[in-house]
Amino acid sequence: MTKCPECDAEIKIAEDAMEGEIVTCPDCGASYEIIKSGTVFDLRPAQSIGEDWGE
C-alpha cells in the first residue's frame, strides 16, 4: 500500500501491478500512474488525455 499524495488515504497496489498502470484513490478520486523505483512502487499524477474533437 502507498499513500495518496492529495489526501493521504491509503491506495492498495496489487503485488503483480505493472509500471504504467493507473490506480485511483478511493477517497478523493485522484488518478495516478504506477512507477517502479527499484523494488518498490511509487505514484505520479496520471496524464489526462482529453477529447480532441477531430482536430
Task: Outline the structure in words.
With 55 residues, the chain is mostly beta strands. The chain has one domain (2-45): Single Sheet (Rubrerythrin, domain 2). Helices cover 0% and strands 36% of the residues. It has strands at residues 2-3, 10-11, 22-24, 31-37, 40-45. The strands form two sheets. The chain has a three-stranded antiparallel sheet, with no helix packed on it. Strands 1-2 form a two-stranded antiparallel ribbon. The protein is globular and about 40 Å long.
Top keywords for this entry?
single chain, 55 residues, mainly beta, Rubrerythrin, domain 2, three-stranded antiparallel sheet, two-stranded antiparallel ribbon
Q: State the domain count.
A: 1
- CATH level 3 topology: Rubrerythrin, domain 2
Task: Give the spatial strand order of the biggest sheet.
Answer: 3-4-5
Q: Average pLDDT, to the nearest integer?
A: 86
Beta-strand portion reads 35-45%
Number of helices: 0
Task: Provide the CATH top-level class.
Answer: Mainly Beta
The rounded distance between the terminal residues' Cα atoms is: 40 Å
CATH architecture: Single Sheet
Radius of gyration: 13 Å
| Low confidence ranges | none
- Structural class by secondary-structure content: mainly beta
H-E order: EEEEE
Largest sheet: 3 strands, antiparallel
